[in-house]
Structures are given as structure tokens and as C-alpha cells.
Amino acid sequence: MQRFLCGSGWSRRAGPSGEGRSRPSSPPPLRLPPGGAPPPGPERRCRVCGAGSAGNRSVFPNASAGFPPAAGHGNSRNPHRLGRGEGKAERELRRAARRPGGRGRLPGGPAARAPAARDRAAPPGRTPPPVGRISGAGGVRRALPWWRPVVAHHPKLGTSTTMAAASFISTTIPYVNARPHVGHALEFVQSDAFARYAAMSGRDVYFLSGSDENSLKNVLAADKEGISARELVDRNVVFFEKMVGDLEIDLTRFIRTSVDADHLEGAAEIWRRIAAAGDLYTKDYEGLYCVGCEQFYAPAELVDGKCPEHLVEPETISERNYFFRLSRYQDRLLELLESGELRIVPETRLNEVTSFVRAGLADISISRSMERARGWGIRVPEDPEQVMYVWIDALTNYINALGWTRGDEHYERFWENAEHRVHVVGKGVTRFHAVYWPAMLLSAGLPLPTEIVVHGYITASGQKLSKSLGNVVDPTDLIDRFGTDAVRYFLLADVSPFGDADFSEERLVQRYNTDLANGLGNLLSRVTSMIVRYRDGAVPAPGPVERPEEELTAQLLESDRAMHAAMEGYDHREALAKVWDLVRRTNAYVDERAPWHLAKAGDDASNAALDTTLHHLAGAVRQIGRLLQPFLPRPAAAVLEALGSDPVKVPGADRWLEDLTGTPVSKARALFPRIEVPAED
């Protein structure tokens, strides 16, 4: 399968909402000789314009003759590349030569791929999920949030000549062998807060998640239920999609690794590139394998002979597999870690990874026999008896979702040229993301992530929440009983962003009632009620400013500065603590100024002081609404709406009282009703 540089001979491009994508069956596989160079083959020409290999444009062999012309004959960025100077493939090869890692790209690059990029087609009637926001089960798209900058790829507002700095943020893609637990919710909510903060700060953000569906543990779970693996993953992925919607997670794309065409093609292409770099070989192997972790363990890594994560004895596996020359990249990985080019947060995790790499890297097995995989998984290119090890398959989703193999502009913008490429991961999978994945990218000649943010576990009585341990807490149940805001706030304000934290429903309720219902909710109600009552629902012009206003201003500026500093360090708990310093100080300011006494006095001095008080209260609460947007998007919008503020136009902390006078204010509804827990008998 081959894409011509003019854009024809390829599948139809998806429209803004994702419709119109079609892909026929894969052509016969391309057999690469040792060294990975494509063999000579017949010239292929574009069936629309006849352009081919003339003019020193390389067109590779085995290009499929069965693809329909692209809609509009070309692509969205340039309708006809041939004969118009340097094309995208040439630019990519030139960039690759300058890229750290030194390998560059195979001839043709992602805009001109080798064939047979997928070995298992999607089931009949199932199409790849389109790029777009999702909300709840079924992938229903919703409008972009107001704070998304208008940039080149904006699906509604068209093109802007000024493009914001780009950031890529991802969660790990969870296994779907069972329903999600609250540990999954933590990672999704954390990543969503980071993505919303980045966008609020003026960056253009691509926020990715999905489902890891090709694992052996999915096969075993299906066998236990007496159903097929396909039935199991199709059923369980709906629970994860529903959790995404219930938690108000604003994804750009949700990728499914067993059916998404971009993923199936991209995983196979990365395998070919690693093979072409001379980094694959086969050998007989015996090792201790934990299905729960989908990982081999050395005997020294076990605890009392058991997996340290799942507390079960691993299986002894013997078979012939493909191995990746991870050891070849030890020195380069150390350079990246020690220089900060590959940043790992927090520093304790960086030290762990650096020590692991410095101790010496062994080559790793990256395939499994078809027999052991029960026929489930992505087949190794050119070897139908092996499937890719699930982690090697899964890690590639991060760039596959961006359409790198078909030259999609999202890949260039949000990976190749992005300012930040951030993975948010649990501590149990740090090695895969901080060692294996960067090494794979170095081998394939592709850019590396810039940051890996590692969180701890949510525990129950000190034990990790795990489906295999049977101590899971269902996030859907929590949301049904306590609401989205309570769950989001607890996970972001109470749970450590980097360490383990024990889960407690009592703690969740206490946090919600104390901080949200009694703190912010009460403050918003008091402020809006007083402006409506004393000044007919319009923010008055301020009178003289005195010490209480100066102290409120100082706290506001400090909270704003500290919140931003904490989020730049991926510490959502500290960021919310600083916002709540402002909530408490503003409530204290209300009590100090006692507007009800000023209104009752009725003299000129008291009226002027009341105007000053109400003006500063409106400004402070407006800033609280602005700062809360990454964490509690719906309540933040309600706060700003009650104060008559357009979220797009809320000024920063340095101009916090700007454009307030005369703003219409409405009495806020009860934003955070108290949670009443029935008393135990």
C-alpha cells in the first residue's frame, strides 16, 4: 500500500467530523531483504493525473492499485505536490537527518509507506473512530471548549495565520478486560486538568486516550466468561467511554487498538522501521511472565516469588520470540535522562529510571506465539506465526492516533514540531514509557516524548486497587452517588499527584462539603446575593481602597502565581490548594468588611465602602472562576456566568478589576448542594 506524493492513490480523507474515511483490504505484504531496503518494483502512477516517478520523485513498489482517488485530488494542505518544489517526503528526510538519534527515516517516510500495514482488519460494519471530541458512550462529539485557541486545524472556525504553541498530552490506554476502577479515573482527571490548563495558557492541545485491547489478559478474561475476545473488548470499552463522558474528560481522540486503522497500520510500520535499523532478531527464550502486568520478570524482581504488582506467582514461558536490541540504546537513553531532554516528573521517578538504565539494559522479547496469544493481537509483519507483544503494540498508539503513517498534519503539528509531548502514566508502567518507548522511537528515527509524568496508586488499606485483587472502586458508582464535581475535586485536591493515596468515601464527602459547599458555593451565593440586593444586580464602581482591599489583592496575585507554578510542575493538588487560599481569604474579606452593616448604616462613607467591597468581591470571585477552569470546568463556567463574565474575556490577575463596573450579576443557584451521609445505626 503506497501513498503517492500528490495525495491520490490513498484512502479518502475524513472530513471535519470524521466521516468519509474508507480503506480497502491490505495488499500483499512487502518482503524486506536484510538491511530493510525496499526491493525494486514496477513504477506506479497517480490514476488522476498520471504523475509517477518522473522528475526524480521516488514512487515505491507494490503501491496498491485498488485505492480510490482522494477527494479533491490531493490533501488538505496542498492539492497537488508533484512538480512544485520540495515535497513533504523530502522535508521529512531532511529533518530526520538533523534529529537527535541519528537514524533518520526509511526511504519514503510516513507520507509514502510500505504495504501490509495491518494484518487483522476491523470487523465487518465497524469503522475506525474519527478524530473529534467525545462525551460518554458512543463517542458523541461536542463543541470545542471556549478556551481552545483558534488554530490551523480548528474543525469549526477555520484557519488562523497565527498558530499557538502545540502540546500533546496522553493518558495510558487501559486494558479493557474488566470495567474501569477509580485508579483509571485519577489518571484521566489528572490528564484532563493538565490539558485544560495548557489550553487555558494559550497552547494548542491534542489530548489522547483510548483502550488497550490486544492483550493476553483480555483473551483470558473472555475465556473465563465463555465469550470471544472481540465480544469482551467491544462490551467493556463502552464502560470506559462512559467514564470519560461522566467525568467531563475533553479528549481530542479515543483510539481503540484492535480496530483503529491508523493504529493497526502504524504499529506494523514501526515494527518494519525497527527491523530495518537492524534492531530485531529471534531466539528461544524462557522467562517468568505475569499476565496481569503483561511483563517478564527477572527472579530478583519478584517479592517472595510473586509479582510485586499483583502478588501472584508468574508463569514460566518457553518459546521462540523476536527480540529488540534495547541494550544498543543504553548510552543514548542515559544522555537524554541526565540532560533533561527527556524529563521525568517527579525527580524520584527520574532517579529510579536513571539507575535502572545505568545498571545495564538487556534486550527484550517483543513478540508472542500465535498459539499462546490464541490468535488475538496484531500479527508481526511477514511472520504470521507471531503477534506483537502487547506493550510494543500499545505504545505506538501515541503517534498512530496522529495519523503519522498517512502524513496527517496532526502528526507534524502535535508530535514532530510540538513544544511539549507529555505522557501521564502510573508508576507501574514507568519503565515501558521512559525506557522501552524512547528506545523504540530512537530505533525508528522518530521524535521522543519530552515529559513523562508519573503518578502513584490509589490504594485501599494500603493495597493497590486492582481488578485481579478484587478491591476495585467503581468510578461510575461514585459519580452516580456523589456527582462529577465531587469526584473530580477529590481526585485533584486530595490525592497526591505523584505518591500513593488511600481512598476513602468519608474523605471525599468531607472535602466536598468543606471546600465546595461551605467554601466556594457559600462565597458565590453571598457575593451575588449582596450585589443583587444592594446594587440592583450591577457591580458598582469602587470607592476608596484601604488595607483589606490591599491584602485581598496581595493574596489574589500570590494565588495566581503559585497556581501556575504548580501546574507547570504537574502538581494539581498544590495548584488547587493555592486557589483555595484565595477562596478562604475572600470569605474572610466578606466578614471583615461586613457589607450588611455598611448597607444598614446608609451614610455616604458607608455607601462608598460598600461599593468598594462589592466591586472587589466580584473581581475576586471572577478570578476564582478563571483559575478553576482546568479542574472543575462546569462549576467554573457557572461562576463566571453568574457574574456576567464572558470566559474568553476574563482578564488575568494583573488586571483583575478591569471591566467590572456595571457588569450585570444574577443570584447564583446552589452550585454545590451539601452531601448528606445517612447516620449509621
Structure in a nutshell:
The protein is an alpha/beta fold and 681 residues long. It has helices at 88-98, 182-200, 216-225, 229-246, 261-276, 330-339, 347-358, 370-373, 390-395, 397-400, 409-416, 430-444, 475-482, 484-493, 505-535, 547-568, 572-593, 595-601, 604-627, 633-642; strands at residues 166-171, 204-211, 253-256, 280-290, 295-297, 315-324, 343-345, 364-365, 367-369, 379-380, 383-388, 420-426, 451-455, 458-460, 463-464, 501-502.
Radius of gyration: 28 Å
Kindly state the percentage of residues in helix.
25-40%
Count of helical regions: 20
**Helix-strand makeup class:** alpha/beta
- Note the main sheet: 6 strands, parallel
**What strand line-up does the widest sheet have?**
3-2-1-12-13-7
User: How many angstroms does the end-to-end distance come to?
Assistant: 69 Å
Number of strands: 16
Q: What is the general shape? A: elongated
Overview of this structure, please?
The structure is a single chain. The chain is an alpha/beta fold and 681 residues long. It is 39% helix and 11% strand. It contains 20 helices and 16 strands. The strands form four sheets. A six-stranded parallel β-sheet has the order 3-2-1-12-13-7, with helices on both faces. Helix 3 (216-225) packs across helix 4, helix 15 (505-535) runs antiparallel to helix 19 and helix 17 packs antiparallel against helix 19. The relative contact order is 0.10.
